[in-house]
Amino acid sequence: MDQALATCLAFPPEGALNDDVAYDQAIQAHLLKLTKLLKEPPVPLAQYGGQLLELTDPEYNSLSYIAILHSLVLPNVLGPREFILDKLVKFLLGFDPRQIRYAGSHLLEILFAVYNGLLPPSVAVEVISAAILKIDPTGSMFTSTHIQLVKLAYNTNNIEPAMKVVEKNIVFYPGMANWKRPTTLCDMTLSPSVYIHRETGLTGNVKAAIVLEYDMLSGMMFCSKREWNKAHATFERIVAFPTREGGCSKIMAEVYKKWVLVSLLSKGKAIPLPSYTGPAAAKAYQTLGKAYKDVASLFDTTNAEELRSEVEKSSQIWQDDQNVGLVKEVLSAYQEWQIKNLQNVFSKISITEIRQQTKSAQTGTNLNSDDEIEALIQNMIISGSLKGVMEKNDDGTVFLTFLPASTVLSEAEYAQELTKTAIQLKALEPIFKATNERLGASREYIKHLIKEQKRAADKSELDPTMGFESHVDDEDLMGGVTSTA
Amino acid sequence: MVSADPILHFFTIIESQGGVIVKESPKLDLDLYIANYQGRTRFDRLLLIGRSSVPLCVDALKAAIAEAKGGKDVQQYRDAWECIRIAAPTESESQWDSAWVEKTDKANKLETARLEAELKQYKNNLVKESIRIGLRDLGEHLEQIGDLAAASDAYLRMRPEASTQAHIVGVAKHIIGIVLQRRDWPSVLANVSKMLTGGMSDEEQKAHQPFQKLVAGIANLHSDKFYEAAKNFLEVGDPSICQGCNDVVSSNDVATYGGLLALASMDRSELQSRVLDNSSFRNYLELEPHIRKAVSMFVNGRYSACLDILESYRADYLLDIHLQPHVRAIFSAIRNKCIVQYFIPFSCVTLDSMNKSFAKPGESLESELMTMIRSGVLKARINTIDKLLVAVSTNDRVEMQTKGLETANNYEREALERIRRMNIAAADLEVKGPRKGVGNAMSGISGGETWFDDTRRQLSQAESSVG
Could you tell me which residue ranges the PCI domain spans (chain B) (predicted)? Predict the structure, then answer.
């Protein structure tokens, strides 16, 4: 027991290992010792594992900690369940990401177990998203854990804790060509696309369908939070997902339908497909999403009655596609958009006139009283979707004054806004660099480069015959002819 | 009023067929009006007036019957008779003149046969010129008896036989005459451009210009290209030559069409320079002084007076064979322009003063203004509380700022999206279609290339819009 404890506490050693190479060597040696300890334990681990966990620090001795934890929870929890699970949560919330890179597959297995019910869902979502961001603070790399996270979060309705992962921009995917095992895995400047790989165990295999499903579920999570803009952007990623050889998957077609509805909610009208949508997919959308397109084309007209009947006509479709909720949202948003569009025509308008001019798509008629309209507008102003103020005239008519959408920023404010975007753009740099390095070092690119250089060399040899001088001569000749003629 | 009932009945039928009905008396005098024209258009115009104008119905139809009987086209007679039979059963013209029909029919057939036989003979002789003449005679005859398809066929066959520039122009004119009657506007334009080709001397060009411009203008008018049509009519040129084209339109029509369409499609300075200061078009305007007055009213900013003049002639325009289907569109275009022009110098106008200038008494302009603002014609906002129309003041600074920030955000989004797509491709995670061999694979690759091109273009557009 003491010996085991000594082994566990041996890493990281006292005093800094300030060199990546030294750190790497030390941790490799430690790994060997740990493996030995776990393979041939002097006493079965179950007896004193708990004590070991108590005595080691999950944040400081993360590598040893995970080794013990792994054997204690998998395949079955050994020892006092509550105590061990408590330790597990602590560990997942606080492990040292540098050490954990050396135990990727262990971590992955533990996370999978967590996903499969080792912890109650509300806790599981919290710890999985924390772990994902611990491993990769930029959140820019997709892993097999991501899909588990969103599935769990969406299906058990624990959306909030997963949001911090879902809101990150994902740009890297596992299994990209030209991966090379880094010499020192502990290098903290590595791009996530380098240290997260099947080989390091931090992610499993990923298929196109999984990537699509992840985006779909995250889009639906945005929908349930009514963040229509974000949902729209997320769905658009799926709708325009890169395709090859005329491909189009079922998820894409399903999401297209949601995308159409969400674009009505976020933009108030149907949006054309992005230009880079796969041609075969675009064709498939046209036939599969016809009912949705029909509704969308009526949304920005003033014909509420027709919109309503169109929606009712296809009610079976909404049910089959499980889009009843979204369609309802669309119907209830219709009048709000009608009111918003009034600001393109009016600067001030009385509440009564608004009531006469806009109809609710839920009933197909005008609202019954001015109070209802007033309440609706009040809500829109409060939620920030409408910029305007309601005032009362001397004669008692209540009216709405539309305010300009954006106010003039002072020079300083504008500069501040610009710096903010500049910083955001700067943040892209590591991603850009990583991609650039990966592509620049790829065999195809180098081949292409050599070929280009060869061609350039060939060209310079050809030059004398097809050169610039001879051309000038030609023109001179012509000039002479015209002048004498 | 014995005849009132059949006329009412007649116009109910016309209305159910979707025809235009003009109840007001036009300013024109039927006899004088029709005397301006020659050829088959006379009948067409009479029939149109007969079918549209309530006050002129019977007179026009009677004249149409007379016109038809003066010619050789049995179908024309039948058309006119079908109308008058319902509209004025008591008139003597409503009796079916079967003797004339039979006689004409027989004569027509004989004539066709004779001309065809002649043509055959010419063909045997292989003399180009006489074949051409034979075809022309046949075509003209067929046109007169109303067999337009066969006539255009005959004219088309003239083309290979044409040996001089004049012949080619002649063929084109014949064909245009036919397609005009068949209302096939795209072919009119095509044939007009055919007429233009070839090295014509200035003089010839001048001689043909009126016809060319006229028919092109009519075709553009019917294709709803008002601005092009207006330009065509304004460039018609020499009125004395134009007089010769009165089998299509009269000089008065040129003035009306040109003036109206210019009002509908040009701004004030253009109207001044192209219409009022146009020396050749002035000759036409003299024929229709009210058009000239309307244009100068518009130029001088007296919009309601201009609209009043046009409104008083609405019935006349509705009885014109070419204007009839477009009167509503032209009028509303002119009206919209008047409102827009009226509003330009102001930042804020009371709705009352707008109503005073433009609305019919007792009506409000509001809904019309709303449609205009919605469609983007009028850049203004309505204030229904203080009853004002307020101009939209664009703040360039705000616009620039929002645009700048938007571009930066778009750049970021697009960069991320592109890197993401590259990485998806690198990880071989694209959604693939069913493999169908090499050809398909190739198309997949080219699809990828277009995508790269596309985004690049978008990006550069976004950049340039900033600069």
Answer: 225-396
Measured CA distances, A219 to A129, A150, B421 (Å): 17, 10, 18
Torsion sign, CA atoms A414, A419, A422, A427: negative
Q: Which residue of B has its CA nearest to A211?
A: B429
- Residue whose structure tokens are 């086209």: B73
> Tens-digit pLDDT profile for chain B (467 aa)?
444 577 788 888 888 887 888 888 888 888 888 888 888 888 888 888 888 888 888 888 888 888 888 888 888 888 888 888 888 888 777 788 888 888 888 999 999 999 888 888 888 888 888 888 888 888 888 888 888 888 888 888 888 887 787 888 888 888 888 888 888 888 888 888 777 666 667 777 777 888 888 888 889 988 888 898 988 888 887 777 777 777 888 888 888 888 888 888 888 888 888 888 888 888 888 888 888 888 888 888 888 888 888 888 888 888 888 888 888 888 888 888 888 888 888 888 888 888 877 777 667 778 888 888 888 788 888 888 888 888 877 777 778 888 888 888 888 888 888 888 888 888 888 887 765 444 433 443 333 333 443 444 444 444 444 43
CB contact under 8 A, B426 and A176: yes
- Give the closest residue to A16 by CA, choosing from A186, A135, A183, A131: A186
- Residue-level length of chain A: 485
Phi, psi of A455 (to 5 degrees): -65, -40
Backbone torsions φ then ψ of A399, nearest 5 degrees: -140, 160
Q: How many beta-carbon contacts under 8 Å exist across A and B? A: 171
Q: Are B234 and B275 in contact (CB under 8 A)?
A: yes
> Cβ–Cβ of B382/A176 closer than 8 Å?
no
Q: Which residues pair with A350 in a beta bridge?
A: A399
Using the Cβ of B441 and the Cβ atoms of chain A, whether some distance falls under 8 Å is answered with: yes
- Output b/e per residue, B110-141; b: 16+ Cβ within 10 A: ebbeebeeebeebeeeeeeebbbbbbbbbbeb
Between CA B104 and CA B69 the distance in angstroms is 9
Residues of B (405-434) whose Cβ lies below 8 Å from A: 405, 408-409, 411-413, 415-417, 419-434
Inter-chain touch A348–B424, beta carbons under 8 Å: no
Q: Is B452:B415 a contact under the CB 8 Å cutoff?
A: no
DSSP 3-state assignment of B353? helix
Judging contacts by C-beta atoms under 8 Å, the chain A residues touching residue B412 are: 421, 424-425, 428
- Which residues 265-324 of chain A have a CB within 8 Å of chain B? 275-276, 278-281
Cα diameter, chain A: 112
Q: Do residues A400 and A351 touch, judged by C-beta distance below 8 A?
A: yes
* Sign of torsion over alpha carbons B293, B299, B305, B308: positive
Name the residue among B184, B139, B182, B188 with its Cα closest to residue B159.
Answer: B139
> For residue range A267-294, what is the model confidence (pLDDT) as tens digits?
888 888 888 888 888 888 888 888 888 8
Which among B385, B398, B455 is the nearest to A276, CB-wise? B455
- B431/A435 touch (CB, cutoff 8 Å), yes or no: no
Nearest chain B Cα to A408, which residue? B398
Residue of A nearest to B409 (CA): A421
Nearest CA in chain A to B373: A345
Cα A65–A72–A152 angle (5° rounding)?
A: 90
Cβ distance B448 to A278 less than 8 Å, yes or no, reads no
DSSP A118: I
Residue A362 forms contact with B (CB below 8 Å): no
CA distance A178 to chain B (A): 9
